[in-house]
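ARCHIVE CARD
CATEGORY: sequence design from structure
SOURCE FIELD: tokenized fold
FIELD CONTENT:
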């Protein structure tokens, strides 16, 4: 589509107090464009630039790079939803969902998400821009976002780089954004991928309790729950099993009777086994009887494609990293991907307990990096010599006093409007779909808000939207969720 540059305003200009003074502290660049979504032309305005972060003393301590897409043929924004979008890491830019999922432009990749040349971008016919405006935000040290310090001073890492600090300053930033863009009356949504799941669980309560900004929806894409992930607890070890089943099914490593079934037929069986048999067995540790250990090992082998003897050698406590190395060791000798286990890798040696590298991540960086640099500078017209940080330095991230589940529970309890959508890929081995479902139950242990939570699974990995079929399906699920939670709601009461 043809693009028109409207204007570029530099409000504070380039400043010597910026950590990298090639980045303006407060600026907007606006372009006009359009995209065809579901057969209809959607005109939109793209505003990109930098917006400051102020501390409690009114001093600028950082400037965040953002891109805001607003449909231009809708005049009444009081009924027009707004999605505030974050990725994860922590330390990851918003690039992933921006140019591959919900935005009006997506990567040029094949239908399964693999890079192709020439690199670039194309229109996204499935974008949710038809039903919602979207702003993509890059936290400090991601994308072009940077701290701002006086000469001779050091960056205050505690202000930015921690679970609670992150939510606090981002909530402040969002309040400024809402005021500047006159969006206080709009239905509001926050979406976060991976660590972004923890981020938006934190943000939901931070926005409502300290900014008095009430939300219609919280959307978590492949969410990371740090109460369980990499904890080594029995729940972490047991709840990953359905992911092992999905991946073994994809690579045709299950017994014939399971392999001939559809994936979504066998996953409920695997989920029940993980809850009702594997979790109790692992929890018993050395107190388990030999009879129960052997019985559980037999079933575990059936659902994972891993030899019974190997599972017993690990006391039934198989870590995902070992699974990625072991599943195809005796067949092709290849490893499988962490974030998307459909991808294959080649290690130096077939022996070992974990892969040498993540083949899916190298594939994604292959296609995303040239595309976002081209798009930002040539289409959005944000010109800079500063490196776009796909992953940026965020210090020693502070997880102390992390209570994301409870923060989201409180936000939901205090706001009857607030709905939750969780989207996960079955082949994601980093933040598994089965752990995401487990987390949903832990957010609301009473079960009283269960009808306000929705789970959607997809036949792909961490970034399910890279697979064309799931790009369409996941965006449609978002579209349905947004429409349902923003139209004809009625009074906010129980």
């Amino acid at each position: 589509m043809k693009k028109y540059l409207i204007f570029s305003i530099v409000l504070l200009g380039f400043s010597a107090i910026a950590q990298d003074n090639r980045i303006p502290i407060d600026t907007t660049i606006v372009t006009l464009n359009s995209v065809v979504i579901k057969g209809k032309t959607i005109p939109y305005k793209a505003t990109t630039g930098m917006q400051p972060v102020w501390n409690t003393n009114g001093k600028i301590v950082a400037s965040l790079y953002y891109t805001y897409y607003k449909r231009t043929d809708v005049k009444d924004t009081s009924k027009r939803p707004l999605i505030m979008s974050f990725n994860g890491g922590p330390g990851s830019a918003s690039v992933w969902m921006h140019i591959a999922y919900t935005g009006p432009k997506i990567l040029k990749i094949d239908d399964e998400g693999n890079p192709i040349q020439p690199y670039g971008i194309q229109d996204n016919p499935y974008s949710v821009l038809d039903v919602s405006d979207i702003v993509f935000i890059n936290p400090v040290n991601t994308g072009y976002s940077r701290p701002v310090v006086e000469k001779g001073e050091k960056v205050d890492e505690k202000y930015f780089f921690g679970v609670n600090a992150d939510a606090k300053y981002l909530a402040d930033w969002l309040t400024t954004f809402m005021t500047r863009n006159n969006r206080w009356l709009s239905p509001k949504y926050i979406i976060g991928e991976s660590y972004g799941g923890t981020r938006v669980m934190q943000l939901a309560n931070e926005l409502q309790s300290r900014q008095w900004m009430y939300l219609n929806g919280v959307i978590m894409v492949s969410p990371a729950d740090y109460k369980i992930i990499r904890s080594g607890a029995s729940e972490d070890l047991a709840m990953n099993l359905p992911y092992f089943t999905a991946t073994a099914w994809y690579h045709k490593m299950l017994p014939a009777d399971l392999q001939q079934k559809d994936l979504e037929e066998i996953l409920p069986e695997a989920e029940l086994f993980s809850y009702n048999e594997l979790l109790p067995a692992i929890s018993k540790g050395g107190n388990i009887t030999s009879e129960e250990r052997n019985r559980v090992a037999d079933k575990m082998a059936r659902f994972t494609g891993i030899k019974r003897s190997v599972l017993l050698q690990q006391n039934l406590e198989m870590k995902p990293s070992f699974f990625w190395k072991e599943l195809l060791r005796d067949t092709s000798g290849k490893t499988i991907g962490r974030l998307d286990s459909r991808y294959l890798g080649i290690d130096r040696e077939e022996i070992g307990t974990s892969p040498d590298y993540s083949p899916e991540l190298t594939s994604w960086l292959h296609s995303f990096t040239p595309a976002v640099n081209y798009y930002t500078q040539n289409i959005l017209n944000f010109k800079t010599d500063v490196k776009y940080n796909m992953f940026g330095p965020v210090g020693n991230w502070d997880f102390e006093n992390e209570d994301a589940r409870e923060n989201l529970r409180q936000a939901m309890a205090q706001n009857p409007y607030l709905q939750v959508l969780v989207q996960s890929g079955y082949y994601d081995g980093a933040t598994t779909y089965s752990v995401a479902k487990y987390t949903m139950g832990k957010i609301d242990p009473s079960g009283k808000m269960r009808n306000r939570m929705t789970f959607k699974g997809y036949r792909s990995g961490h970034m399910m939207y890279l697979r064309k079929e799931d790009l369409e399906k996941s965006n449609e699920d978002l579209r349905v969720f947004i429409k349902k939670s923003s139209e004809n709601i009625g009074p906010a009461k129980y």
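CARD ANNOTATION: The CA atoms of residues 177 and 387 lie 24 Å apart. Residues 1-18 have pLDDT under 50 and may be disordered.
SHELF: design records, drawer C
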